[in-house]
Specification:
Shape: globular
Structural class: alpha+beta
Number of strands: 23
Helix content: 25-40%
Distance between the termini: 38 Å
C-alpha cells in the first residue's frame, strides 16, 4: 500500500459515520480544490437568484391543470399530492448542480426533493480543509442547516393541526432504506444535526394503517403511519426516498399501492413529511423548460431583473430537440426525473449521439432537451495517482437561502461513480 493511500485511509477512518469509499471504490478525495472568497460568493449569489426563480415558479405550477402536469412528466398518482403546500418554503434541503467557469455559471439541474451530498459538504469538507490548513467556505452552514431542520419539523407538526394538542411529545422518525450505506448515514447525520427527540427506522420497519380499525363503533387503531413500537408517527423525514419511487411502491403480499396510501395520509393531515410535497413539484427537469419558455416569451410573470437572471444562469431547455437541430447546437437529453447521470445522453448539433451513461433506469421518464455545456476540468489526486477530471459544483439551497458548496469530479456526465472533491480557501494566497 502506497504512503498516500495509507494517509488517506487513516484520515477518513477517524471521521465517524462517513462512507469515504463506496462499493469498495474510492469516493472521497484526500485533496482540496482551492477557491477564492470572491469565487465562493459568486456561486452563492447565483444560487440565491436561481433558487428565487424556482421558488417563484412553484405557485404557478400548482395552478396548472392535470393534463399540463402530466405533460411535464409528473406521475398521475401524485397530482393531488404535489398541489399541497404544507410549509411556507417549497423545499427544506435542495441542491443546485452548477457548471462554473471564469465567464459564467449555468444551472444543470435541481434536486429539490431528495438531495444527497449533504454530510460531505456540511461536515467532512471542513475536516479536510483543517487537515490542509485551508479555510472552510462552509464553516457556518451546519448551524444554518440545523436551524432549518428544526424550523421545518416544528412547522410540519403545526401543519397537522389540532390532532397534536393532546399529545405529550411528537413522534418524529428519520427513515431511509436501511441496507444502503450512503442513504442510511446521510439520514442519521440529519437526525443527529437536528438534535431533537426522534428515532431512525428503516423504511421496512414502518407500518401503514390506511383506514382506522374499529370495533363496536370504537376506534381501536387510528389510520396513520406507525413505528416498530406501535406508536403513530407525526413527521416522517424521508431525505433519500424519492416521491417518484414512492408512488409506485406496493406491498408484495397484498399488491396494495402502499406509497400512494402514504401520500393520502399526508393529504388528510394524518402525517407530515419532509421534504414537503412542493419539493417534488420542482424536481422535474421539465420545470426548467417551462421557465425557459416563459423567458423566451418575455412573459410578465417574471420581472425584467428576473429575466436577466434566467438569461444569465439557465440553459435553453425544451421538451423536444427541434431548436438544437435547427440551430446545429449540441444538446443533452435527460430524463425529467433521472438522478446521478443515469440515462443521460449527449448529442451533436446534427443529432448524432456522442456520449451516454451506461445505465438506462429512467428510459420511461419524460425526456427534456438542454443545451450542452462542457464541464471544466481540473487535476485531482487519487490513490492511484493524479487524474484529469471534469467537475461540477453543488450548492445547497436551504429554506430559501444559498448554503454549503461542494464539488463532484469525474466524467462529463456526472454519475454515481464521481468523486467528492472538497473545497477550501487559501487566505494567504488571496492576500499576496
Amino acid at each position: 500500500m502506497n504512503t498516500f493511500r495509507q494517509e488517506r485511509q487513516r484520515f477518513f477512518e477517524n471521521i465517524e459515520g462517513f462512507w469515504h469509499d463506496l462499493f469498495n471504490t474510492e469516493y472521497a478525495l484526500y485533496d482540496v480544490k482551492k477557491e477564492t472568497t470572491a469565487g465562493i460568493n459568486r456561486i452563492r449569489q447565483a444560487a440565491e437568484r436561481i433558487g428565487h426563480i424556482l421558488f417563484k415558479a412553484a405557485p404557478l405550477l400548482r395552478q396548472l391543470d392535470e393534463e399540463t402536469l402530466l405533460q411535464l412528466g409528473f406521475p398521475k398518482p401524485a397530482l393531488s399530492f404535489i398541489r399541497l403546500q404544507t410549509l411556507p418554503f417549497e423545499s427544506v434541503i435542495a441542491r443546485l448542480d452548477l457548471a462554473v467557469t471564469a465567464d459564467e455559471i449555468k444551472l444543470l439541474e435541481v434536486n429539490s426533493d431528495t438531495p444527497t451530498f449533504i454530510k460531505e459538504t456540511f461536515s467532512v469538507n471542513g475536516e479536510v480543509c483543517k487537515a490542509f490548513g485551508l479555510i472552510n467556505p462552509n464553516e457556518t452552514c451546519a448551524k444554518e442547516l440545523r436551524e432549518a431542520i428544526q424550523l421545518a419539523l416544528k412547522m410540519a407538526l403545526q401543519s397537522l393541526g389540532k390532532r397534536e394538542a393532546h399529545r405529550r411529545s411528537p413522534s418524529i422518525v428519520f427513515s431511509s432504506h436501511n441496507d444502503h450505506e450512503e442513504d442510511r448515514l446521510t439520514t442519521k447525520y440529519l437526525q443527529e444535526l437536528a438534535g431533537l427527540p426522534s428515532q431512525y427506522l428503516g423504511l421496512s420497519q414502518l407500518r401503514l394503517v390506511p383506514e382506522s380499525i374499529t370495533e363496536n363503533g370504537q376506534i381501536l387503531i387510528e389510520k396513520g403511519l406507525y413505528d416498530s413500537h406501535g406508536e403513530k408517527i407525526d413527521v416522517l423525514y424521508r431525505q433519500t426516498y424519492p416521491i417518484e419511487h414512492l408512488v409506485e411502491d406496493e406491498d408484495p403480499a397484498t399488491k396494495e399501492k402502499v406509497g400512494q396510501l402514504l401520500l393520502k395520509l399526508v393529504e388528510e393531515k394524518e402525517l407530515a413529511i419532509i421534504n414537503p410535497p412542493s419539493a417534488f413539484l420542482l424536481q422535474s427537469k421539465a420545470v426548467m423548460a417551462l421557465i425557459w419558455g416563459l423567458h423566451e416569451e418575455e412573459h410578465a410573470f417574471f420581472t425584467a431583473e428576473e429575466h436577466e437572471w434566467i438569461h444569465s444562469y439557465f440553459l435553453p431547455t425544451y421538451l423536444d430537440e427541434d431548436y438544437f437541430l435547427e440551430q446545429e447546437i449540441s444538446y443533452v437529453k435527460k430524463p425529467s426525473f433521472g438522478r446521478e447521470g443515469d440515462t443521460v445522453e449527449i448529442f451533436s448539433g446534427s443529432g448524432e449521439k456522442v456520449a451516454e451513461d451506461a445505465h438506462k433506469t429512467y428510459q420511461d421518464s419524460l425526456p427534456v432537451y438542454q443545451q450542452f455545456i462542457k464541464l471544466p476540468k481540473t487535476v485531482i489526486q487519487t490513490v492511484n495517482g493524479s487524474k484529469n477530471a471534469h467537475y461540477m459544483y453543488g450548492c445547497f439551497y436551504i429554506n430559501g437561502q444559498a448554503s454549503a458548496i461542494g464539488i463532484r469530479a469525474g466524467r462529463q456526465i456526472t454519475d454515481n461513480e464521481a468523486y467528492f472533491l472538497p473545497v477550501g480557501i487559501d487566505i494567504e494566497e488571496e492576500n499576496k
